[in-house]
Design a protein that fits this description.
Layout lengths: L3 E3 L2 H5 L17 E5 L7 H12 L4 E7 L3 H7 L4 E5 L12 H8 L4 E4 L6 H14 L4 E4 L11 H5 L5 E3 L3 H8 L3 H6 L1 H12 L2 E4 L4 E4 L5 E4 L11 H14 L4 H23 L6 H4 L3 H9 L2
Helix pairs in contact: 2-10, 4-5, 7-9, 10-11, 11-13
Length: 296
């Protein structure tokens, strides 16, 4: 139980992603629903959605606050963009859950959280959505993590289909700890969260820990400091949901996504310098890193 394995190219080649034939159509590559964005942070939805496509998903829907939906539709012409009722603060109102549930049932994987600032609204939206949806794989990120303790019952109904992607601060809130507690024992915190939520946990940091509900653990230590930048986590969450839509298991999607994200950052560090590259620049690197893993 105490052993932690390293996430390496060799490990991933031993657990290959579902193969796509040359004549696979976009439906076979999976449908993603990204529920994200707010008036203050519209870019989270863009980064996560495009990352899902870069990871190989075939169809993308972005559900976001009505006020920013037209702009996202222009910025991501590959996506179907849903304009949802807004909360008073410019986020997605919980009443949107019914419409979202109908959409989600027709998707292979859904992501909730990037760029969402109204924690109370996100909590209520997540609770209603988790109760109404059965079947799709689920990724919870950012604001969707802040009240996960209150969603334990709903999450257990999706056991085996959920990935959560907290950083140390979000993990502290999730477990009722201080950030220092999490930083001092990231593996212990990740194992507690995985047992609590019955989800695969990706605890982001200088070393990223991936843990299953049974306590199995992996770590990725090859990432650079340049990944610690605005929007980087949205990109990682988008890669995870894209891989899930393609048919990867939650653990497989988490391990592959962490490696793809980290190595994309390393490529940018070589061309741009170790810090100063942007999260949106990671997107174009993802397919190249993935191709290198599949076709060494």
């Amino acid at each position: 139980m105490s052993g932690v394995r390293s996430v390496t190219a060799e490990l991933l080649r031993g657990m290959p992603l579902p193969r796509l034939s040359e004549d696979s159509d976009k439906d076979e590559r999976g449908r993603v629903l990204v529920i994200a964005g707010s008036r203050e942070v519209p870019g989270g939805a863009l980064l996560a959605g495009v990352a899902a496509l870069r990871a190989g998903a075939g169809k993308l829907q972005i559900a976001t606050a009505a006020g920013i939906a037209p702009h996202l539709g222009l910025a991501v012409p590959e996506a179907l963009v849903l304009a949802l009722p807004e909360s008073p603060t410019g986020g997605i109102a919980p009443v949107a859950a019914k419409l979202l549930a109908e959409r989600a049932q027709r998707c292979d994987a859904i992501l909730l959280g990037p760029g969402m600032m109204d924690e109370a609204a996100v909590r209520d939206l997540a609770a209603r959505l988790l109760e109404a949806v059965a079947g799709p794989a689920i990724v919870l990120d950012a604001a969707a993590l802040m009240h996960v303790r209150e969603l334990q019952e709903q999450l257990r109904g999706h056991s085996g289909r959920v990935v959560i992607t907290p950083h140390a601060g979000e993990m502290a809130g999730l477990l009722g700890l201080t950030r220092t507690d999490v930083v001092n024992d990231p593996l212990g915190a990740a194992r507690k969260a995985a047992a609590l939520t019955q989800a695969v946990v990706v605890l982001k940091g200088g070393s990223t820990h991936i843990v299953t509900p049974s306590g199995e653990a992996w770590s990725f230590t090859q990432g650079g400091v340049g990944l610690a930048t605005s929007g980087s986590g949205d990109t990682l969450a988008g890669i995870v949901v894209g891989l899930l839509a393609r048919g990867a298991t939650p653990l497989q999607a988490a391990l592959w996504a962490v490696h793809l994200h980290g190595m994309a950052g390393n490529r940018l560090a070589e061309t741009h310098g170790s810090i100063g590259f942007l999260a949106r620049e990671l997107l174009a690197e993802i397919p190249r890193v993935m191709t290198d893993l599949v076709e060494p």
